[in-house]
Amino acid sequence: MTDRHILGxxxxxxxxxxxxxxxxxxxxxxxxxxxxxxxxxxxxxAKPDPTAKETVQQARAISRMGDFYHDPLARxxxxxxxxVLGLPADAAGIIVDRIRYDAERVxxxxxxxxxxxANILIVFTRDGGAEVRKLxxxxxxxxxxxxxxxxxxxxxxxxxxxxxxxxxxxxRHGQEQNPTxxxxxxxxxxxxxxxxxxxxxxxxxxxxxxxxxxxDITASVVVIDLGAIDGMxxxxxxxxxxxxxxxxxxxxxxxxxxSTILSLFDPTSAHPREMTAxxxxxxxxxxxxxxxxxxxxxxxxxxxxxxxxxxxxxxxxAPGQ
Length: 321
Description:
31% of the residues lie in helices and 12% in strands. The protein is α/β, with parallel strands linked by helices.
């Protein structure tokens, strides 16, 4: 394991989970060969493209956010550096490279220097639920910025994946919005009995579009049970992890209007082999332009971004199409 696979603030998390992931996979993920299906022919009927309204509704459903009209969506502002624990080096390297590729194609900042301290950590373990519950109990500070309902959801989750994002509220210039101490500018004679004042520096905004604050993701962790990825292609797993790490998303369930990689571990849904048009449009909209805009602006743009991508694909199809 190289230095680029160690998380900065969550370096302790990596160390704590390392003991639970010593038992590595016996063979590289995704290289398992299946047999050809037998039986009657299968007719596949393509789903119609989702409407703009359906696209926005789905984008809202998968987003963890505050107020739709008055709060921003969280995203990375600092360059991302992915790391992997619990897989053989060759498979881990493919996942790292794929997540970097995903970040590049949606416009997220990427750490060019290597090695680098990872701020995205993908952990593969035999029992992710037990590991996360133990961390919540003994190392609660590793979940800074996570509200109580989300922490409870992590603790009680029954599926094979647990994911969370460490976030920080900052002003529109990127400064932490933490209380600071400032001395009053008036003399002690005109202000008897008062010492330093506790103030919060929050620049205001006169715009109806841009907010005075933003929410930055400072670290993301995705914990996946090894038993759930048997036979899956490495790129498919990496794309799912990227969709959970680059944005504060939740898994998709059931029959969605638009195909999404977020349904990968739902037994009742289709399992795309890579990020879909919806996924790419969602992340591109998130990382497009400024971060201090309401969630509504970003999510309403997903359908427009998807239409733009589709038009470009039709104009310049991939080789062989």
